[in-house]
């Protein structure tokens, strides 16, 4: 079984709709992250959480919100989706410690029409 | 802030050719350096890492050496296979920026290996 799972894997929605992407992990890690990937831009950090009560904005948090429901669950919401949020979204986890190896989920492909 | 620059692709090689993907970084302090690989339709997987200067990370025939004097972490493989076709990302963490435990990624280099 995958250590980091994301649901849904694919989603098509319309402008203005509220969307939630979910991430669950069985690695027992405290730290969780949301990234988006766009062609030619690499991965950019949206939000990160070092524990349930510690949530931080990343490089591109505008238009997004998150919820850390439990150590193992970290959800990303688009309150009112817009077409330029069409992207591949990845959740990642890491243990505490300096060397910060991150483990990634399979991704969610989101299309906003 | 921290940044990572890697060579732009796409890179197309014949099977058994030598591979180099250049990566340089900007960070103060002592960052850790990583190469991640993304196979088609999948998430990123850690390929190798190095945590201090002159360390060599290696895995699956790939190698990269942490060169602090040139702020580089170039990825090499002596003989590529078709199965190495993927997108490769250079990344760092533990630099000087806010949230120094975050990963900062390069833009990725797509490698295609043809038989």
Number of helices of chain A: 0
- State the end-to-end CA separation of chain A: 33 Å
Biggest pleated-sheet summary of chain B: 6 strands, mixed
CA radius of gyration of chain B is 14 Å
Distance between the termini of chain B: 41 Å
Class by alpha and beta content of chain A = mainly beta
What is the H/E string of chain A?
EEEEEEEEEEE
Average pLDDT of chain B works out at 91
Count every helix of chain B, treating DSSP H or I runs of 4 or more residues as helices: 0
Q: Name the chain pair with the biggest interface and residue counts per chain.
A: A-B, 26 and 21 residues
How would you name the oligomeric state of the polypeptide chains in this document?
Answer: heterodimer
Using the alpha-carbon principal axes, give the shape of chain B.
globular
Helix content of chain A: under 10%
What Rg of chain A do the Cα atoms give?
13 Å
Major sheet description of chain A: 7 strands, mixed
Q: Tell me the strand percentage band of chain A.
A: over 45%
Secondary-structure element pattern of chain B, one letter each: EEEEEEEEEEEE
Structural class of chain B: mainly beta
